[in-house]
Automatic annotation (TrEMBL):
The keyword rRNA processing does not apply. InterPro entries: Class_I_gatase-like, PRibForGlyAmidine_synth_PurQ. Keywords: ATP-binding, Cytoplasm, Glutamine amidotransferase, Hydrolase, Ligase, Nucleotide-binding, Purine biosynthesis. SMART domains: GATase_5 (SM01211). This is Phosphoribosylformylglycinamidine synthase subunit PurQ. It comes from the Bacteria.
């Protein structure tokens, strides 16, 4: 699966994202700088990595969401292409309107960096089909603003449509309904705060994140 990893000033999980993509999806995965206006020909997956784009100035992901490459990312998503946003990438997706809701300061106002347990709530999506329904996986979080919020109608819609893909087993940040990852209505855009790319080899402590990439590969 041909993958483009978008780099913003302040991205810091871009190398890990590229490594995971090359390991599990496609040797030819490439970086794309945020000032570009087009994705490489034939891109199937856009990977928005974690980090502190623009130093989290204004709000996490707010400036990155308005960078030139995002027009191409939106067009890619509208055409049905896959988009995976992890951590700051999830924040960029909510800020750009590709996913609903917002990520606000963690409940305890601390940056948190630790492995957490997630329950796979929906294993029918292109990003989760290699997991079992209800499977509990261990993937690290590393964020200060991962507290998922949306209005009650949006939360109800996400739940009714099975769009909560990953839920925290032990909510670390105050996210409504323990939400750790959601998909858009069409199912081709996933945002999640935990970092699957940091859990793709046992050397890293867990390989439970591999399923996200293996699901995409099997799509
Ligand atoms: N690892 C990350 O992507 C950090 C995300 C974000 N800037 C935060 O701290 O909330």
């Amino acid at each position: 699966m041909k993958t483009a990893v978008i780099q913003f000033p302040g991205s810091n999980c871009d190398a890990d994202a590229l490594h995971a993509a090359r390991l599990l999806l496609d040797q030819d995965a490439t970086f794309v700088w945020h000032t570009e206006t087009a994705l490489p020909e034939g891109t199937e997956l856009v990977f928005l990595p974690g980090g502190f784009s623009y130093g989290d100035h204004l709000r996490s992901g707010a400036i990155a969401a308005r960078s030139p490459i995002m027009n191409a990312v939106k067009a890619h998503a509208e055409a049905g292409g896959f988009v995976l946003g992890v951590c700051n990438g999830f924040q960029v997706l909510t800020e750009s309107g590709l996913l609903p809701g917002a990520l606000s300061r963690n409940r305890d106002l601390h940056f948190m960096c630790k492995p957490v347990h997630l329950r796979v709530e929906n294993n029918k999506t292109a990003f989760s089909k290699s997991y079992d329904a209800g499977q509990v996986i261990e993937i690290p979080i590393a964020h200060g603003e991962g507290n998922y919020y949306a209005d009650a109608a949006t939360i109800a819609e996400l739940e009714e449509q099975g769009r909560v893909v990953f839920r925290y087993a032990d909510n670390p940040n105050g996210s409504l309904n323990d939400i750790a990852g959601i998909v858009n209505k069409r199912g081709n855009v996933l945002g999640m705060m935990p970092h699957p790319e940091r859990a793709v080899e046992l050397l890293l402590g867990s390989e439970d994140g591999k399923g996200v990439f293996e699901s995409l590969k099997a799509k």
